[in-house]
Write a structure and sequence with these properties.
It is a single chain. The protein has 465 residues and is an all-alpha fold. It has helices spanning 3-22, 27-46, 50-66, 71-87, 99-132, 148-155, 169-176, 187-194, 197-210, 219-222, 226-258, 299-304, 308-313, 317-326, 336-351, 355-361, 364-377, 384-411, 414-423, 427-442, 446-464; strands at residues 263-264, 289-290. α15 (336-351) runs antiparallel to α17 (364-377) and α16 runs antiparallel to α18 (384-411). 41% of the residues are buried.
Length: 465
């Protein structure tokens, strides 16, 4: 493990016991303590680069105060443009931001855009209430516009400050105002989330030792046979998954110990978004709670779901919610594949400026188009046993597609990514294009194929709302 990874591990490990202590604090003390701890972590690890995050927060607050009507679009433009400045800091003779500053800036960008949208919704609903003389049944809406202190407290809350998960401002306020945090589930769900972390961590260290990423960049690697080169991307993606499974499960445990994102099961909470239905306590029954609001990874379904599009749903789930609600609906296209491509482009930009991100993320729409074509042309015409075989083949190709795309994500450079893909003859690009061609040749009628694809896309969008 690198020194930076050890620091991340230390912050994650310390956040869990600290979380249990926060359950004993009053609302006001909890807010101050979480801000103080988060700022301490930021200043200690980022030093002068803390100013980047502070400028982002102040800029967003000014936008909200000046023009709440246009705050969603302006905050998105402001935070994403500042990300560009942040990443090109050396061009302006400024010091290169640390990896810790980058992690904080990424999550802060999500928070600020979400905050602007929440404040905009608050004012819109407030005007609607006044004009209709009735309270709007908005779910999870703000009760008042946040102050600068509230915005700073939310931005620098220690929970998930470098690792996520993303959570909305309303989720943060609900956490501060919990009436009896000590009575909420704590140890059991926390241990449940942590139980596989040692396994994930051990597998990460072991497989990474035998299959280091650096070997891919050597001439010796290119001398290996095609089957070894193909297998190597499987091992690299396995290491990648184990690393993030460990980190995100640990980050979720930090939220659980503090009680952040804890809602009754009947609230039907979504990762990132929180409750989707109005709820009220029932004194006659024992309330059951969950932490779905801060769930960032579904390890089983990430590995074993069948489709490429479904794989995205179970990975980095709170960020997927953010993309689905703030980017996907505003895409300048109507086609699902093009809207997905636009969303992946924005996601790649959010991750960074390395060409590997774009090569990887923009391969996803091609894979989605390929699986849609084969589903409508082949799977729809098979019987139950045939569909079962089709699904197993589909799952195998889905995993290979993510193995393939992961190489761009971790190699980062365009030259390294293309050199590797070339060494395996652009296998998954060829397979995807082949599936699209075969699907168009075999499907029984253009309209029928489009109807099936449209139905599937509508189901996908409904499940992520």
């Amino acid at each position: 493990m690198s020194p930076d990874e050890l620091v991340y591990l230390g912050v994650l490990a310390a956040s869990i016991p600290f979380g249990f202590l926060f359950r004993y604090l009053s609302s006001s003390v909890k807010q101050v303590a979480a801000l103080f701890l988060g700022l301490s972590i930021t200043i200690t690890l980022c030093h002068i680069h803390t100013l980047h995050s502070l400028v982002t927060v102040i800029g967003t607050w000014i936008i909200i105060k000046i023009s709440w009507q246009y705050a969603p679009a302006l905050s998105l433009s402001w935070t994403f443009l500042y990300l560009l400045f942040f990443r090109l800091a050396t061009w302006f003779d400024l010091p290169q931001p640390t990896p810790f500053a980058n992690a904080i800036q990424l999550l802060l960008t999500l928070k600020m855009v979400s905050l602007a949208n929440e404040v905009n919704s608050f004012h819109v609903e407030k005007k609607r209430d006044v004009s209709s003389f009735a309270k709007s049944p908005v779910i999870g809406g703000l009760s008042q516009e946040p102050s600068l202190y509230d915005v700073l407290s939310y931005s620098y809350c220690y929970v998930g400050i470098m690792t996520g998960p993303f959570f909305r401002f309303q989720t943060y306020m609900d956490w501060l105002k919990q009436p009896s945090p000590l009575s909420l589930p704590s140890w059991e769900p926390c241990l449940q989330r942590l139980k596989m972390v040692p396994v994930f961590g051990a597998l990460f260290l072991a497989v990474n030792y035998y299959f280091p990423l650096s070997y891919v960049r050597t001439d010796e690697f290119l001398d290996q046979n095609i089957f070894f080169r193909l297998f190597y991307m499987v091992a690299v993606f396995f290491v990648f998954r184990m690393r993030f499974y460990s980190a995100w499960c640990g980050a979720e445990a930090g939220c659980i110990s503090a009680g952040l994102g804890c809602y009754p099961e009947k609230a039907l909470s979504k990762p990132g978004g929180g409750p989707t239905v109005n709820y009220s306590p029932d004194p006659t029954t024992e309330e059951k709670y969950d932490f779905k609001t801060i769930q960032n990874i579904d390890c089983y379904n990430t590995d074993f779901c069948v489709k490429v599009r479904h794989g995205m749903r179970y990975w980095n789930m709170t960020v997927q919610w953010w993309l689905h609600h703030y980017i996907y609906p505003n895409a300048p296209f109507k086609s699902y594949a093009l809207r997905a491509g636009w969303t992946m482009l924005i996601s790649a930009y959010w991750h960074g400026l390395h060409a590997g991100y774009y090569l990887s993320f923009l391969t996803i729409p091609l894979c989605i188009a390929a699986e849609s074509a084969m589903e409508s042309a082949v799977r729809a015409k098979l019987g139950p046993s045939g569909q079962n075989v089709f699904d197993w083949i589909h799952w195998f190709l889905k995993m290979r597609a993510y193995d393939y795309m992961c190489m761009g994500f971790v190699l980062l450079k365009a030259s390294d990514t293309i050199n590797y893909w070339m060494s395996i003859y652009f296998t998954m690009h060829v397979v995807a294009v082949g599936c699209i061609i075969v699907g168009k040749v075999l499907k029984g009628g253009r309209k029928e194929g489009r109807k099936g694809e449209k139905t599937e896309n509508m189901k996908t969008e409904q499940k992520t709302e």
